[in-house]
């Protein structure tokens, strides 16, 4: 191996994609489940340079001849460069986190900062907060150690903090939807930062957005930034525009990883345009209506007949939650998905929403759609739902020409959405 990543479990790491997109060298994921394997790997040192992740960021320090002072102070090394058989250790996680804060204009000067969690990333983020002038850095734990001044999640709410940083795995895929901090009860918040990057928006970030916190961002940009700074150490050269590289790779990664959900009136073309768009984007096509039928075993008209609209909506929500937390999918939604706010929240956690806008006179009456029984019914439905589609969508895609025209318009909108 020349370049790569070691850690106990690497199944969900994006590092290979990031480094190969960035530099073109080959980057291998090398899972080392046991400490013995990690030690043997470090003794053999058959690599040019590596990144190190959980749980070996401290262990590798034993094998380094030189350790960067910041890495030493933080107590963790995530980047190791082999120079003529001697290992040099650095920490680029703190640079990555500092980049995330700077890119979103987070001002730490004189602020009270809450760090959720006591694990490895706690020290990294607290070092950055202190460097940037935080007045107080408080630690929050589910099992607070009062002797160390740690707070419970209940105490944290009343701490008067302006900035919250989550360093715990709470809310991380597949256990999405988890969050112990009631940010809605913290009116002075200026920024909420989460180092978790899968899903794109954790429950904490969604709640912070809903509470109107001005800056609410997940950890993807931090992950990319630490990789860019690691690559500089790997290759002993600086990028001319490191911030530009971080922006470029983050955008490409989000475009690749996130879901695209199509919403719109019944028969507006969500399935037809969706299939074609999925192929173009290289995403897996999922028709949520088909998934409801597959999971239930009955057709949609039969579900409506047996359980009414409420029964159908509950099934629709269950399938939405199930698929929305996955990634790299094109989700063709049922026309009524916007009737439940929870569906939209689930779709937004890891994707973007496009409203496919087909003229009313081109929509199909009937066709096995229980709520589209007549032209009048469709007209009334469109008047009710149009504002909801517009409010939920990241972009509006007209579907008034050919299917290919709609696909091209959607590609253009996605270029725009993922360009920043
Ligand atoms: N741009 C277009 N040009 C011609 N026909 C189109 C266009 N877009 C969609 N259609 C046609 O309209 C009909 C409805 O499309 P489709 O089934 O994809 O809609 P939908 O939004 O998935 O509907 P539903 O809400 O029932 O799932 C299909 O016959 C499809 O071929
Ligand atoms: O998941 C990953 O790929 C990584 C996570 C962090 O620990 C980084 O420090 C590491 O370099 C790579
Ligand atoms: Mg459809």
TrEMBL record:
GO terms for cellular component: cytosol. Substrate binds at residues 289, 313, 335, 385. The keyword Secreted does not apply. Keywords: Amino-acid biosynthesis, Aromatic amino acid biosynthesis, ATP-binding, Cytoplasm, Kinase, Magnesium, Metal-binding, Nucleotide-binding, Transferase. Residues 5-80 form the Shikimate dehydrogenase substrate binding N-terminal domain. ATP binds at residues 267-272, 369. Its EC number is 2.7.1.71. GO terms for biological process: amino acid biosynthetic process; aromatic amino acid family biosynthetic process; chorismate biosynthetic process; shikimate metabolic process. InterPro entries: Aminoacid_DH-like_N_sf, NAD(P)-bd_dom_sf, P-loop_NTPase, Shikimate/glucono_kinase, Shikimate_DH-bd_N, Shikimate_DH_fam, Shikimate_kinase/TSH1. Transmembrane segments: none annotated. Its cofactor is Mg(2+). Binds 1 Mg(2+) ion per subunit. Pathway: Metabolic intermediate biosynthesis; chorismate biosynthesis; chorismate from D-erythrose 4-phosphate and phosphoenolpyruvate: step 4/7; Metabolic intermediate biosynthesis; chorismate biosynthesis; chorismate from D-erythrose 4-phosphate and phosphoenolpyruvate: step 5/7. Mg(2+) binds at residue 271. It is found in: Cytoplasm. It catalyses: shikimate + ATP = 3-phosphoshikimate + ADP + H(+). GO terms for molecular function: ATP binding; magnesium ion binding; NADP binding; shikimate 3-dehydrogenase (NADP+) activity; shikimate kinase activity. Monomer. Belongs to the shikimate kinase family. Catalyzes the specific phosphorylation of the 3-hydroxyl group of shikimic acid using ATP as a cosubstrate. This is Shikimate kinase. The gene is aroK.
């Amino acid at each position: 191996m020349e370049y790569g990543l070691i850690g106990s479990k690497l199944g969900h790491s994006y590092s290979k994609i990031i480094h190969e997109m960035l530099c073109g060298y080959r980057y291998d994921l090398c899972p080392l489940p046991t400490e013995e394997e990690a030690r043997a790997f470090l003794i053999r040192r058959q690599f040019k340079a590596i990144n190190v992740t959980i749980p070996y960021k401290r262990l590798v320090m034993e094998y380094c001849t030189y350790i960067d002072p910041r890495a030493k102070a933080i107590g963790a090394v995530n980047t190791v460069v082999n120079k003529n058989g001697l290992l040099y250790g650095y920490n680029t996680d703190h640079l990555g986190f500092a980049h995330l804060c700077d890119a979103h204009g987070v001002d730490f000067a004189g602020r009270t900062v809450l760090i959720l969690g006591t694990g490895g990333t706690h020290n990294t983020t607290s070092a950055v907060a202190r460097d940037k002038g935080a007045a107080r850095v408080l630690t929050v734990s589910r099992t607070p150690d009062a002797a160390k001044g740690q707070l419970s999640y209940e105490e944290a709410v009343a701490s008067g903090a302006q900035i919250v940083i989550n360093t715990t795995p709470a809310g991380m895929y597949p256990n999405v939807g988890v969050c112990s901090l009631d940010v809605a009860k913290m009116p002075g918040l200026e920024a909420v930062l989460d180092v978790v990057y899968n899903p794109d928006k954790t429950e904490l970030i969604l709640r912070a957005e809903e509470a109107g916190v001005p800056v609410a961002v997940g950890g993807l940009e931090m992950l990319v930034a630490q990789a860019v700074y690691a690559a500089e150490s790997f290759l002993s050269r600086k990028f001319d525009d490191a911030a530009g590289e971080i922006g470029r790779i983050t955008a490409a990664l989000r475009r690749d990883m996130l879901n695209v959900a199509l919403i719109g009136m019944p028969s507006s073309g969500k399935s037809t345009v969706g299939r074609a768009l999925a192929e173009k984007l290289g995403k897996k096509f999922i028709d949520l209506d088909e998934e409801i039928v597959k999971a239930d075993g009955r057709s949609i008209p039969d579900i409506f007949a047996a359980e009414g609209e409420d029964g159908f909506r509950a099934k629709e929500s269950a399938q939405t939650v199930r698929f929305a937390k996955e990634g790299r999918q094109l989700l063709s939604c049922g026309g009524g998905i916007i009737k439940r706010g929870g569906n939209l929240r689930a779709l937004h956690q890891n994707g973007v929403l496009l409203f496919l806008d087909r003229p009313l006179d081109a929509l199909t009456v009937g066709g096995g759609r229980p709520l589209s029984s007549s032209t009048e019914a469709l007209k009334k439905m469109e008047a009710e739902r149009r504002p909801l589609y517009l409010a939920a969508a990241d972009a509006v895609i007209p579907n008034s020409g050919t299917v290919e025209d709609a696909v091209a318009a959607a590609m253009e909108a996605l270029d725009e959405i993922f360009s920043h």
